[in-house]
Amino acid sequence: MFSSNSEREAAIQTYGWTPVPHDLDLLLKQHSEAPSGAAAPIISVSSIPLPPSELAKKVHEYAKKELPVETYNHCLRVYYFGQAILQHVFPSWKTDTFDEMYFLTCLLHDIGTTDKNITSTLMSFEFAGALLSHTLLTSLSSPPPQTENITESIIRHQDIGTEGTQTRISALTQLATIYDNMGLREELVARGTIEEVVGKWPRRGWSGCFARTLRRENGLKGWSNSRRLGENAFPEGVENNKLMAPYDAAT
Q1: With contact defined as beta carbons under 8 Å apart, do 235 and 189 qualify?
Q2: What is the DSSP string of 57-120?
Q3: Backbone dihedral angles phi then psi of residue 70, each to the nearest 5 degrees
Q4: What is the mean pLDDT of residues 77-93?
Q5: What percent of the chain clears pLDDT 90, i.e. is strictly above it?
Q6: What mean pLDDT is reported for the chain?
């Protein structure tokens, strides 16, 4: 793919392969750019436009067609919660390519959980979804270093741990999916931002919906990657998402 080391290094910089701590608490401690003690600002959904490229539009159309509305809404919430975290905590991460790459990752990160895809493979849904996404993005002429970072981030979006490193795209995807799924680190996003995002893309009982998906995945695949987060503890943690409970009840 690369004809020289300089070309390889340029791709690493352009397509967001900068390593950051795998441990999200350590990441926030060492890399947060938020002023000490500053509360997260309320960020309007209208202030964060979706990436306008043809690639983004085509993948968005694909996701809207393939995903159940509950999962599609989750993907958009993850995008906006991630953007809110980015603006508040990691503003220097923004590059010309970051928003589009993060948007594509959000749209595709749960593609492996659809009724069709979860039963069509023995692989864990993250890995199967990553392969589907790699094929899709390649067919749409996404640059290989971009496609590969998105693919790796989808594989690792439930790879919660404390050792090693990951890319910035992967780290932000983890922070935002955990925020929407379990309500952890609630200080990262303002309550007003939550209300705007949920108002635009309602949860529709997402906590129960995703917990059922996890139990289905674990029942079908005794080796599933989701089990490493706790076969019962993980879905129960999703069901007991206290931060998002009022919004689940409202839909």
Answers
A1: no
A2: HHHHHHHHHHS-HHHHHHHHHHHHHHHHHHHHH-GGG--TTHHHHHHHHHHHTTGGGSHHHHSS
A3: -65, -40
A4: 97
A5: 84
A6: 94
Q: Which amino acid belongs to residue 168?
A: R
Q: Which whole-number Å values give the CA distances from 74 to 33, 122, 199, in the listed order?
A: 27, 24, 12
CA distances from 219 to 123, 169, 223 (A): 13, 30, 10
Backbone angles phi, psi at 59, to 5 degrees: -70, -35
Given the structure tokens 């603006």, which residue do they identify?
Answer: 87
User: Do the Cβ atoms of 161 and 26 come closer than 8 Å?
Assistant: no
> pTM of the prediction?
0.95
Rounded to an integer, what distance in angstroms lies between the CA atom of residue 244 and that of residue 38? 22
Provide the residue type at 174 as one letter.
Q
Q: Tokens at residue 136, please?
A: 């899709």
